[in-house]
């Protein structure tokens, strides 16, 4: 670092610095201010988009009626066009309507669409658990077990164990089903879920 003997030398040094670097400093300040303004605009733009998307989601899902094909088509269009949490939630709502109509292939496809739309681990877990249940109804037991393997997190242990037990029982693996339900009962499950799994174990004899 340079040491100056008096104020004049310091002032002269500052003048030389600005003479040599003034243009670069101005450009830097302009770019910095531009970036700040741009960032604030982007944040505001994102907030605005989120509000619009949220309102559109509320509109299509509130109107959802399994007996009205146009509402199903509107929700499906919304889900396919929104590669985000709202799109995934719409897929989840739509899948339920397809299950009510016993259109399991469409329900499963919708859940797959939802899984591609979100990076939220909890929402992905819900989508996968619903998908596994549907795959069981479709008699696609191995697919259901594979889907369950993709669900992570301690909070889902009991529900995974319950569905896994059903899947293994459908394959004729009574001991595997018993082991799965035992694991679920030993987990931090709700009393109601523990009781249900205990009943299923008791029914095995």
Automatic annotation (TrEMBL):
The chain crosses the membrane at residues 24-42. One of its GO terms (cellular component) is plasma membrane. InterPro entries: SecYEG/CpoB_TPR, TPR-like_helical_dom_sf, YfgM. It is found in: Cell membrane. Residues 15-205 form the Ancillary SecYEG translocon subunit/Cell division coordinator CpoB TPR domain. Its main location: membrane. Keywords: Cell membrane, Chaperone, Membrane, Transmembrane, Transmembrane helix. It comes from the Bacteria. It is a single-pass type II membrane protein. Coiled coil: none annotated. It holds the Pfam family TPR_21. GO terms for molecular function: protein-containing complex binding. Belongs to the YfgM family. This is Ancillary SecYEG translocon subunit. It comes from Winslowiella arboricola.
């Amino acid at each position: 670092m340079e040491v100056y003997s008096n104020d004049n030398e310091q002032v002269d040094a500052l003048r030389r610095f600005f003479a040599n670097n003034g243009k670069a400093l101005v450009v830097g300040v302009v770019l910095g201010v531009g970036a700040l303004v741009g960032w604030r605009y982007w944040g505001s733009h994102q907030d605005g988009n989120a509000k619009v998307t949220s309102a559109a989601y509320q509109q299509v899902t509130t109107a959802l009626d399994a007996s009205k094909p146009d509402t199903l088509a509107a929700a499906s269009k919304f889900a396919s066009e929104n590669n985000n949490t709202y799109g995934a939630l719409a897929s989840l709502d739509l899948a339920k309507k397809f299950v009510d109509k016993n259109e399991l292939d469409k329900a499963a496809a919708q859940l797959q669409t939802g899984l591609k739309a979100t990076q939220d681990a909890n929402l992905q877990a819900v989508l996968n658990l619903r998908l596994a249940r549907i795959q069981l109804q479709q008699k696609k037991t191995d697919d259901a077990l594979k889907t369950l393997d993709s669900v992570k997190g301690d909070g889902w242990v009991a529900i995974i164990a319950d569905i896994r037990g059903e899947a293994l029982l459908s394959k004729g693996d009574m001991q595997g089903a018993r082991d799965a339900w035992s694991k679920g009962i030993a987990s931090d499950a709700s009393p109601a879920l523990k009781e249900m799994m205990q009943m299923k174990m008791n029914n095995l004899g």
